[in-house]
Amino acid sequence: MPPPPTPPTRTPATARRVADETNGHGVVVSASELLCRAGDRAFFGWGEPRSREKALDLYARAASDASSPCASAMRRLGRCYEEGAGVAPDPDAAASWNEAAAALGDPDATCATARVVERAGDLRGAGERYQFAADEGHAGAAFELGRMYANGLGVRKDAEAAAYWYQLAAEHGDAAAQRAVGVAGMEAANENEANDPAAAAAAAREAIEWLERAAAQGDADALNDLAIVHED
């Protein structure tokens, strides 16, 4: 397998017109994306014998395509190296592939890279990457950005900004954000109960709904929060 590359610059995609596998309509798909899809079939054993070795080779070919490098394949390689899936774990190689995918604008890879950068202590750099991925609609990055604003990590502490990003992430299905919105709602309801009981009760019901959404996704903290609420 070739070593992780220097993050590539964007280049015009060389594409071919193929029939979409699900609906038969013609769509433009790059040759490297087709290789990545073939890698997925080999990796998971979809319609063919499962082969991590074959998958990794296909991902590497897709990621290293000179005319149209595939960011999704780079991200998959990064995860394989991070988790040791079909290859020996290699944090440096994982980081290099994720950085390469992030350079092509892949929001999943950008968020993954942000977490690595944050663990290394570069909070400002992490925040910038979370911001980019969140702006691209990545729910997990939006949650992380809310967390950074809530705690003043690399940015000025800003409860309003934190609430905005938590809410956005929650609406996009992030369980941790749903729990955060629910907890904040319960706290606000408790604070307002004496002044406006009806409004507080409505806020509590909405907060519980968010906690239930998070719990339905397996969030253990949300399950615990609900148990406490129902005890009261």
Describe the structure.
- The protein has 232 residues and is mainly α.
- The protein has a domain at 1-101: Alpha Horseshoe (Serine Threonine Protein Phosphatase 5, Tetratricopeptide repeat).
- It has helices spanning 31-44, 52-63, 71-83, 91-103, 107-119, 123-135, 139-151, 159-171, 175-192, 197-216, 220-231; strands spanning 15-19, 26-30.
- InterPro entries: Mitotic_Regulator, Sel1-like, TPR-like_helical_dom_sf.
- Pfam families: Sel1.
- Residues 1-23 are annotated as: Disordered.
Strand line-up in the sheet with most strands: 1-2
Task: Using the coordinates above, name the CATH class of the domain at 1-101.
Answer: Mainly Alpha
Q: CATH homologous superfamily of the domain at 1-101? A: Tetratricopeptide repeat domain
Largest sheet: 2 strands, antiparallel
Give Rg in angstroms: 21 Å
Total strands: the figure is 2
Structural class: mainly alpha
Note the beta-strand portion: under 5%
List keywords for this structure.
232 residues; mainly alpha; Serine Threonine Protein Phosphatase 5, Tetratricopeptide repeat; two-stranded antiparallel sheet; 11 helices; 4% strand; Sel1-like; TPR-like_helical_dom_sf
Brief overview:
With 232 residues, the chain is mainly α. The chain is built from 11 helices and 2 strands; from the N terminus they run E-E-H-H-H-H-H-H-H-H-H-H-H.
